Amino acid sequence: MNVEMIGNYMAPFAFDVDVATGIIKDYKNHVVRKASSMRGYYADAGALEALIAEGDPIHYEVFERTVPEVYGNLMVGISKLYPGVVGQECFMTKGHYHQVIQTGEVYLCLGGSGYLLMKTKEGDFSALPMERGKVVYVPPSWAHRSVNCGDDPLVSFFVYNAESGHNYGDIETEGFIKRVYKRAGAVVIE
Fold it and tell me: Of 61, 127, 141, 150, which is most buried with the most CB atoms under 10 A?
């Protein structure tokens, strides 16, 4: 990781976000998840395989302005989740708990529409709407995933403790309690 230092301290920095495209202009880390990266996450595996065969479209991208992953630093970035469906299920992110389970996270929706689905290991569930200007707070111990229900990319700015890490493995095995579908022109959570 390349961070500027002033003496013994990491230097303050600023960066630009192109809100129209949903990209941090000076990002340091770029994650791309295509349909083929999402095997095992959707209810209709056959529909996902057909989508992969048709060109393996990008489901979502993450652009981060990284910092050292140590206590006290905050990781910041942009999540850009594209519109689409797998069968009737809306495009979504993999979702994760934080490795440091006591970590919260904040999302600010910059564009698009959808939901932030959240769950606990004990079976609690919440689905909060995401739309331009909406801030959603994810408390510690809650797994979370974004779901795009609209026709435009769902673009969110996020902030979390840099040392918290991501735990995708539990979501791969547990899944989420509910899914989001588009059926007969309506969005349904079931």
Answer: 61
Question: Where along the chain do its domains lie?
Answer: 5-189
3-state secondary structure of 144: strand
pLDDT (0 to 100) of residue 1: 59
Pick from 128, 106, 137: nearest CA to 189? 128
CA 44 to centroid of chain Cα atoms: 21
CATH number (2.60.120.10, 3.50.50.60, 2.40.50.1020, 2.40.110.10) of 5-189 reads: 2.60.120.10
Q: Residue 7 — very low, low, confident or very high, per pLDDT cuts 50/70/90? A: confident
Phi-psi region of 75 (alpha: psi -120 to 50; beta: other; left: phi over 0): beta
Q: What is the pLDDT of residues 14-34, one digit of tens each?
A: 999 998 888 898 898 999 999
Cα distances (angstroms) measured from residue 47 to each of 86, 104, 140:
6, 34, 34
Q: Is the pTM of this model over 0.85?
A: yes
Mean pLDDT of all residues in 134-160: 98
